[in-house]
Structure formats: C-alpha cells, structure tokens
Amino acid sequence: MQEYLEKRYALALYEIAEKNNKVDEYLRDLTDICDIFDENKEFYEVINHPKINTAKKKQLFTDLFKGKIDEELLSFMMILIEKDRILQLREILDQMEKIDLERRNTIRGIVKTVVPLLDEELEQLKAIFEKKYEKNILFDTKIDKSLLGGVYVKVGNDIIDGTIKSKVEEMKELMLKKE
Fold this sequence. Notes:
Layout: H1 2-19, H2 23-39, H3 41-48, H4 54-65, H5 71-82, H6 89-103, E1 106-113, H7 119-133, E2 136-143, E3 150-155, E4 158-163, H8 164-178
Parallel strand pairs: 1-2
Antiparallel strand pairs: 1-3, 3-4
Helix pairs in contact: 1-2, 1-6, 2-6, 4-5
Subcellular location: Cell membrane
Family: Belongs to the ATPase delta chain family.
Pfam family, one: OSCP
C-alpha cells in the first residue's frame, strides 16, 4: 500500500514538473532536500516529532525553502506534511526518478573498474548495451580496488564480471572441489 501511494505522489509531481518543463529542477531540488533529511539529524527529528504540530512543520519548510525551490514543489511538500508523508520523500523521489528514466527510454547500469575507463571505452560499453536493450544507458561508474583488474558491468538483469577477483574466486572454487 505504501509503495502504491509513493508512486501516485511521484506521478502527480512528475506530471506537474513535466507540464512546467522543470523535471530536472524538481529532481535536483528533491535530492537536495532528502540529503538535508539524511545529513541533519536535528531537522529530521523536528519533522518526525509527534508533538510538533503540522502548522509549525509547514512554517519551517516555508522558512527554509520559499524562494529557493519552485512554488508548486513547495506546495507539494505542504501536502506531504499535511498528510503526514513528508518522511517518505526519499521513496517518492526514487519513484519519480524511475518514472523519469522510463519516460526518457533510459535504464541505469553500473560499471566497476580498478582504474577509471577512458571515455571511448565507456562509450563502447554504452553502445553495446543500448543496442541490446534498445534504450539509452546511463552508467554509474565506480572505482573498486578490490576487483584487482578487469571490469564489472551490470545493466538490468545482465551481469558481466570480467574482473580478476572473480577469476581468482572461480579458480579457488575449482581447486577446493578437486580436494
């Protein structure tokens, strides 16, 4: 039930953002606000405190964000406060990002390497997966020294693990089976 509501809120906000041609702005602002929740324990406690009434919470948000975020986004936040759903903002943002990717015919992938890939190498990987999925691919690249070498790629349900670490583990398993 909770996820259903989060999707509905996300879709409603996405449609407003899309109508106003501010999808990227809303996503960026929501991310920043969620980061404030995550990084500022006192702020989170005030928002979560049952004895602080809705009017005070709304005033706090107005004081903090009026003039810094779009008025319609601020109004949306007021609705979340009224409905006691402001603490689900991260989940609503996650759903909104999924909607955005879907509307842009895009999926996310992860590329892990020991050293950064050259732009050309990343573009080659991207082209391979875009052809396979017939979607745009957005890769999150991560440096992971524990891989020892090679590359790890995950897109959708596909995983390509060409890392030295995985090869060593495979050899270790083979050697242990033979004993």
